[in-house]
# Entry
Amino acid sequence: MSLHQDQAHGLRRLFAASKQRFVPVVANPRVMGAGLLLEGLCAAFAELNLQTLVVDAGVHSPQPSELAQVDLSNCIERLSPRVSYLAARGLPMRYINAQGSAASFLEAVAEAAPQADVILLHASAAELARIVALREVRPLLLADTDPASVTEAYAGMKWLTQRAGLLVYSLLMACHPQLRVANRIAQQLHSCADGFLGAVLRDWACLDPRASQHAPLTPELRHLARELLLAAPPGAAVDASADATPLRPARAAMPSFHAAH
# Structure
C-alpha cells in the first residue's frame, strides 16, 4: 500500500466515528480562479470518500434563497455525489447575536446538512472572525500571482489574527505549481506572518486553473487537504459555538503588507 493510500485509509477510519469538520476559507475577490480552487479542495476531500458541503458566502457569491431563513436544508444543492453547495452571501450576518458573534450560523448549517463530513465555509475575513473566534481551526488563504491578490490574502490573515486570535494558516494558489514566483509569494507571506503578526503559514499548494478538469491532484494539494482536516477537531466548531465571541481590535495598528516590503 502506498503512503497516500495508507494515510487516506487512516483518515477514513478517523472519520468513521467522528462529527463534522469545519474548514474556513478566506474569500479573496482578487482571485479570478477562486471557484476552481474550491473545486480542487473538494476533489481532494472526495478522494478520502468524504462528503463536503461548500457554504459560499463570498462577496461575489450568489444570494441565498428566500427559504434560507425558514429551512436551510432545502436550499442545499447537490453538485456531485460527494459535493453539495449552499449559496450564502450575507447569510452569516443574519445570525449575529448581542455580542457580535455569528457562531450560531455554523450550528444551523451543521444541522441542515448532517450528512456532510466537511463544512467548507468560504467567506470574508470579517465574517469568519465573527464565526470562528478562538476556535481550533486553520483558515485557508487564497491567492494567485497578481500582487493585489497577495496583498488581499495578507490582509485577511492580519484581520483574523487580530480579531479572532487565529495564528496558523494554509495557502492555496491559482497558478502552475512549478512557477518560481509561487514559491517567492509563499515565502513572502510566511515571512510577513511570522515577523509582523506572530502567525504561521504552515503549508501551501498550487492548482493550475488551466489544467484539465480530469488532471490528477498534486501531492501538495492532497497534503494540504489532509492537514486542514487534521487541524480541525471533529465537532469542535459546533460544540464551541455558544462560547464564541469576536475579540476587540488590537490597539496598535499592524503593519501593512506593502509596508513590510
Residues 14-18, 248-261 have pLDDT under 50 and may be disordered. DSSP finds eight helices and eight strands in the chain. The first strand starts at residue 21 and ends at 26. The domain at 3-243 is CATH 3.40.50.300 (Rossmann fold).
